[in-house]
Amino acid sequence: MNATAAVDAEAILGNARRLVIKIGSALLVDQGSGLVRTGWLKALAEDIAQLRAEGREVLIVSSGAIAVGRRSLHLEPGRMRLDEKQAAAAAGQIELAHAYRTVMADHAINVAQLLLTLDDSENRRRYLNARNCLETLLRLGVIPVINENDTVTTQEIRFGDNDRLAARVAQMACADALILLSDIDGLYTADPHRDPEARFIPTVTALTPEIAAMAGAALTPHGTGGMVTKLLAARICMDAGCAMAIAPGKDDHALRLLRQGGRQTWFLPAEEPRTARKAWISGALKAEGTLWVDDGAARALAAGSSLLPPGVRTVEGDFQRGAAVRVVGLDGSPLAKGLIAYPSDEARLLVGHRSGDIEALLGYRGREELIHRDDLVLDSRFRHRDEDGEGHRS
Hints:
alpha/beta; nine-stranded mixed β-sheet; five-stranded mixed β-sheet
């Protein structure tokens, strides 16, 4: 079954540098009044402040905008049309952003709101823009609060979409763990409300067909709601090398309770986040261009550095920002593959120039690196050649 005994949540979180916490609408918003559960949110803010004090970076993916906005717009209970849901989301986002800012300010923590769609995580150019924004916010000590951009979605807004969005954010941010705080406490062999003999599953190490069947519906990208979307999120996380937990969140201090051993299901990946990301860049993406670099750049790459403009001699191909490109030496030997931070026309303008010249050349202050080391995978032949001490030929 690939399901094992319980794991120590504190040990997992103790080794995690970056966490994504997903908050369900039923936890954050009182379903009767449509108001934010302020006391619950304050308790969660205390837990997050403790994580930050321990040196961990935290991102939040929050549902609840439609539930809050519905009340403020006086929309009738019952099924809403798509345009009404979008209007409710637009109104509710303001209230949610204010609520998060208020409770985090008590701990001198700043927050920023990002509205993303699942498409933003799949289009490489938008993916790179969003990831750079997240990295900048985290570097500045800000907690990103992320929700789906419901006002521009072209499909019906569905329960559970934020589970998958949270997994995409965890993948995008190279997070070590995603915690889905929910009104359920984990994965069971069957629906425990219908089957009294349903067994609780504390740990999953592979999403086998048997595990998928426990969701009670086909595990497809179009599944909606409940455990189906949580297992879809787990698949995204595990493929990205990110651990994921489903944990109950209704009570105050949900994160504290999780760390103290409360009931939860963990989905554990076989790889670390950055290892999985590098494998994705190396194997799944087709190169759209080539950068020819000098020996100095080759040595810097071998030492683990990013690729900077001064070491590049030639740019070949027509590509957009975020495209995968090959990096080769002056003799054509393969050195690396990575995601480039500039489109081909701008990359050509930067060839051979110092990073300090970028603003004057392009008219805006861009990234110093053509390819950041986190987006760069060394070719195995180059890596082994360097380890053997053969050096780099011109």
